[in-house]
Amino acid sequence: MTAALTAALETIVGRDHVSPVSGQPAVLVTPASPAEVADVIRTTADAGAAIVPVGAGYRAARLRGLGERRRVHVSTERLTQVIHLDETSLLCHVQAGLTGLALEKLLAPRGLSLGDYPPGILGSSVGGLVGVRTPGKSSARHGFFEDAVAGVSAVLADGRTIHTRVAPRRSTGPDLGRALCGSEGTLGFITAAVLRIHRRPEARLLAAYILPSIDAAIAAAFLALSEECAPAGLRIVDAAEAARHFPAAGLVPGEALLVAATAGPTDLAACDRDLIASAALAEGGRDADPAIAELWWRRRTGGEPSPEPGPQLQISAAPSALRPAYHAIRAAVPGVHLHVSRFDRDGAVIFATFPDGEVGSASAAAATAATAAGGWLLGVRPTALDPYLVALRAQLDPRGVMNPGALIDAS
Amino acid sequence: MAVDPDRVRRELEAIVGPRRVSLRAVDLDTYARDMWPRLLLARRAGAPPAALPTAVVWPETTREVAAIVRAARGLGVPIVPYGGGSGVCGGVVPRFGGITVDTKRMAALRGINADDKVCDVEAGLSGERFERELARRGYTFGNFPSSIYCSTVGGWLATRAAGQLSTKYGKVEDRVAGLTFVTGTGEVIDTDGPRRAFGGPDWTQLVLGSEGTLGIITSARLRLNPAPQLAVYRGFEVDNVAVGIEAIRRVLQRGLRPAVVRLYDELDTFVNGFGHHVDDPAARAYRHSHAPAPLPGEGALPVVPPPPPPPADDGPVGRLLALARRARSHARADAMAALLDRPGLVNRVVGAVAEKIARKGCKLIIGLEGARLRTEVEAALTFAELERAGARDLGEEPGRAWLARRYAVSYKMSGVYRDGAFVDTLEVASSWAQLADLYYSVRAAIGRHAVVMAHFSHAYPEGCSIYFTFAAHADDRAGSEARYDAIWRDGMEAATRVGGTISHHHGVGMLRAPYMAGEHREAMAILTALKLSLDPDDLMNPGKLGLAGARWRS
Amino acid sequence: MSDRFSSADVARQLDDCTFCPKMCRHACPVSTTTGRETLIPQAKMDRLNRLRRGLEPWRAETADPLWACTGCRHCTVYCEHDNQPGLVLLAGRAAAQRAGAGHPALAGYGERFRARDVRLAAAAKENFEDFAESGTVGFWPGCDSLDKGGQDVAAAQAVFARLGVGPVPLVDAGLACAGYPLLAAGLTDEFRWHASKVATALRRFQTIVIGCSACHYAINALYQGEGVAVATEVVSIAEFLARHADRLPAPERKRPVYYHDPCYLARSSGVTAEPRRALAAVAEVREFAWHASDAECCGGGGLLPKTMPATADAMARRRLAEVASAGGGVVATACGTCTLMLRRNAPEGVEVTDLATAIARATDTAFAPPAAPADEP
Fold it and tell me: Which structural domains are found in chain A, ordered by start?
């Protein structure tokens, strides 16, 4: 890093908040306000260096592979204000550095919450939640996390700050805020977001069912969803996974466990639970001990640790492809452990965990089989629209400074 | 712009053949406009359209559309997509001439995937035909705008349309799994795929609402619901708008999703007089199945009226007689004109009558539909919540009456224009916290120039939309246009000032283009960037959506 | 009802359409088949409004959209102004003719109509035996049946005999058509003259059974407007067959048969239940998705096959596409013109038949089609 750039950055944020990153041509800068972010970006861009937004999951070592171009890691760690909490409209306007967990802690005493998103994702900062679209940021009740975004503030490559006006919905052209969601800072550096929040549900009910097969369990899940059940969470686990995670259920090989959480006004939560129960019954299932579901929920919300390492492969499948993809994976790797969850508009996600020592080849075989059966391997980006993304980035960022290594393989 | 029309014809005929290209005057005249009321003022005055397309073309495939775009690029003429021409913002006006591409020969419902509940449908399909076909197969798309008889699926997608039941089913942008789209360079894009799971912008959401300025949508994969098993409609009454708004907010924020919630302000309640339009179904069925017969001897066919007499100058006596004649035959028109010339007075008087003397309060229509069990439970919870919030139950009848006449308001437009006045609607939205401000500010702004009433609908947990209907009068076209422009200028300025959005579902077109800068401010940079990436030559519907169209202004 | 016909009301209708947000347009089969916005009812009425106001000159090109209508009245089902675009456009055609702005394909149509009428009546005398100038019941098949549907005429007479209401002789008057096409051409004077000739012939019967839906509508509703009174009971063949349907032998197995409503029966004369009753006696009646007052037009009315032949045929194909994509089937209809249009444009796997012929086949009623169909005009 040139001394001139470093000095300029120190002038903006103060010497205490600029530090070199060892082993890389980079410095870490931590601005205190969106105005400082704008100045940092303008200064960095003028110097021809790149801007890499970093949030709560920042590990400098992970960014080593970005080559020799000088870059500034811009951290949102100090952008943690709640600008406005609008309890009348259930909207909260927060700065991008606030983590989901921290936000939940602030909302909880008021009986408010971001909603039933997988708690594992809430360790990210709001900027990361909105700017990085990784699998799992969805909930059957609330949709995808970016559906919770009602407004975005961001800094463009030329240092201008944009704010998208908050409205529940509008017809004023393309959704400009959405351009920033999932764009990993390449189109704009997110400094704040207005998020839709929820009141704590009046009731939360948990239930578990044992189905004679995975197919029956999947059929039961879609049957309940077709009756407009809106569960807070839904997971299907095969017998091998159940043996490891829920031994008390006592599944025999071939059976499947379905655990479900429903939430909302008491009558509606009960109705949703009843819809799942009748669907399970219709598919040949039987009630299991609700304590199993309670255990699942406690683990899910971080109250208890999970016994095993996390899954290594995630396949998204539309309802029409879910069973074929599931069976294709099992046929390709007989010993694989599978569970299905993240039921949403797009379908559901199959999570695969491989027996020790076989991860590489097994994973590849499973991925190939699942894709052939109509599933989508998560984490792999289809590239058909990349030329348009390149063109859009070139328009907004002619000098190519906004997180150049992200999204599209730079080579 | 000096393009040779014959050259345009030849290039288009090379793509679609001679029968699907027209340069005929009657077609150019028809395609020059949509249902933007400002255009109707000109038409009523007998003026020809200010802008005409050079040609109209009817492609039948995406490939033909792409070829047409490439041809336009080579010719250096703009392209304007045209669906049902039912838009109310002038979105299809060919400001700089060019080729109007009518999508209505691409109108197939190509297939339904029952497991995924997704259908593949071409953009030119009429909304009513789409829904009827879905209903036949046990599905619904859930989008029922009052223009469903005259709008197309592609038009819905291009404008981010909403239907009356959007509170349950969402606006169209909430129900799109993928689009097929021809860019301004003639390339074809598919945005399908569980794009939520992959990084990068959601291209579906960037194309939706682009009103033909980025390219032409030729088909879409749309999410369906099963046809509702149960529908429950009811009417309630609240003392005033504030109580009504609060009641709706409480329902939505409890996590309940009625299909439709409509709160009519005092004047709208008064004017609509719910339950007064008792349409005899037997009489209506008779009219649909029997043609009227002439009386003996009056001729088998109706009489085409002669041209209205020109304003002749017959001297003072002649003028007085003409005035008397007109006064007799246009008594109603003049009365309305007198009424609409004093909008502030009317607003105050009628509003006061409604509020104080009549003590009618505000009507609230609520409807729920969907899967049987869940809808029953939600309905019970919803009605109980409304009553707790101070709403009085009026039973099923007002709800059913609304449903039976749900598209009726569109037919009322003609009478107003025939009688020399004009009517239009202005829909905005905001979060709950700003909704009351939005209502009073916009109502006051419009009320300076026009009689105005409003209803609240399209409710969300975080806010709601307001739909203002206004009517006004002026002595001539210039006066009408000036008043019309003033209403919109003041209404939009009020909405922006208070923090609302300038359009909830009608779109931008030409009408709201001047206000896009105020709506989006610096974020317009993203729209401009999108335009330059997808349509670098600015061929696609130039001069709309607040984009400059600089290339064509000379 | 007559106020639909006065000049003041037509002015109101034209203005109502001009300012209407096109609420009926999805129902208009001509504009839906072509995709042309210029041919939606609102645009056609607006065009006539501009012509009569003098905003545009009366020329064949400017008056062209007035001809793009079959009079099917589907638009009126979705009109709350109580407008009658089909009838008003016919009046517009008459005005166009008077202004010398008629449709080029209809030059000299009056003469051609008369010649065809005479030729078809003469050919009928050759092909059929049972004629009468007067009597209790007479049969008036309509020109398209006599022209291209000779076997349907024979089938109808055989069914009448089977029902025990025969013989029902053909009306012997040297005429084949009740004159609706003359109105569709805007030739009101010729229509009046022709109507009086037809009425003279029909008056000699107590009951006339009519096979053409346009003839039925013209005689029952329009003749009186021209001062031509017909005291005779004029009943459609569908209603006549329904009256006696209980005398039909029910077949062992009722095959599925779609019923296509002729527009001039279903939406001009209210005849929807009777044809279904007659057909249901011998077949399992299937409905089109759009049926009864929502039935979609075959394209044969309003002289469209003369002014926009490709569009008329496309309308017929479009009507039958639903049957084709359901795997094919049999379609019965109760109007000679519908039978002609649909039969001519039937896709693979779709068989189009006249109602009487369908009944004859289902009940194994023998009939002998005439030797050769009449020549092309």
Answer: 3-75 (3.30.43.10), 82-199 (3.30.465.10), 203-308 (3.30.70.3450), 309-380 (3.30.70.240)
Prediction pTM value: 0.95
Q: The tokens of C61 are what? A: 């090109």
Confidence of residue B299 (pLDDT cuts 50, 70, 90): very high
Mean pLDDT to the nearest integer, C103-116:
97
Give contacts of C215 with chain B, Cβ < 8 Å.
none
Q: Do B198 and A320 touch (CB under 8 A)?
A: no
Listed by number, the residues of chain B in 376-405 with a beta carbon closer than 8 Å to a beta carbon of chain A are 377-378, 380-381
C-beta atoms of B374 and A90 within 8 A: no
Fold observed for domain C249-362: Rossmann fold (3.40.50)
Q: Is B147's CB within 8 Å of C21's CB?
A: yes
User: Which of chain B's residues have a Cβ under 8 Å away from the Cβ of C91?
Assistant: 301-304
Across the interface, of B26, B300, B303, the residue whose CB is closest to C222 is B300
**C–B contact (≥3 CB pairs within 8 Å)?**
yes
For chain B, what is the mean pLDDT? 91
CATH code, residues C109-242: 3.40.50
* Residue in chain C lying closest to B85 (CA): C37
Backbone CA torsion sign across B151, B153, B155, B161: positive
B358 close contact with A: CB closer than 8 A: no
Q: What CATH number did the domain enclosing B32 receive? A: 3.30.43.10
Size of interface B-C (CB pairs under 8 A): 223
- The SS3 of residue A165 is coil
Task: Kindly state the tokens that stand for C306.
Answer: 């003369």
**pLDDT of res. B275:** 46
Q: Which of B109, B121, B101, B105 is nearest to B54 (CA)?
A: B101
Separation between Cα atoms, residue B103 and residue B82, nearest integer Å: 6
> Among residues A316, A384, A309, which one has the least CA distance to residue A350?
A316
CA distance A34 to A43: 14
Give the best residue of C19, C98, C269 to mutate against chain B (max B CB count within 10 A).
C19
Q: ipTM higher than 0.90? A: yes
Q: Please say whether the beta carbons of A68 and A29 come within 8 A.
A: no
Sign (positive/negative) of CA torsion A252, A253, A254, A257? positive
Domains of chain C, by residue range, sit at 2-102, 109-242, 249-362
Domain C2-102: which topology? Answer: Fumarate Reductase Iron-sulfur Protein; Chain B, domain 2 (1.10.1060)
Apex A77 CA angle, A75 and A82, nearest 5: 125
What mean pLDDT comes out for the span B435-441?
97
- B196, closest residue in chain A (CA to CA): A133
Residue C1: its pLDDT value, please?
40
Both tokens assigned to B94? 């060919």
In this complex, the residue of B374, B462, B503 whose CB is nearest that of residue A171 is B503
- Contact: B206, A174; criterion CB under 8 Å: yes
Which of B206, B371, B501 lies at the smallest CB-CB distance from A172? B501
C167 upstream amide cis, omega within 30 of 0: yes
In a shared domain, residues B116 and B196: yes
Please tell me if residue B530 touches chain A, with a CB cutoff of 8 Å: yes
CB atoms within 10 A of CB C201: 20
In chain C, positions 198-217, which contact chain B (CB-CB < 8 Å)? 217
Q: Is B95 on the interface with A (CB under 8 A)?
A: no
Which residue has tokens 């339950």? B275
Residue C90 in contact with partner chain B when CB distance is under 8 A: yes
CATH number at residue B157: 3.30.465.10
Sequence-separated contacts (24+) of B18-21 with Cβ below 8 Å: B19/C310, B20/B57, B20/B58, B20/B59, B20/B60, B20/B105, B21/B55, B21/B56, B21/B57, B21/B58
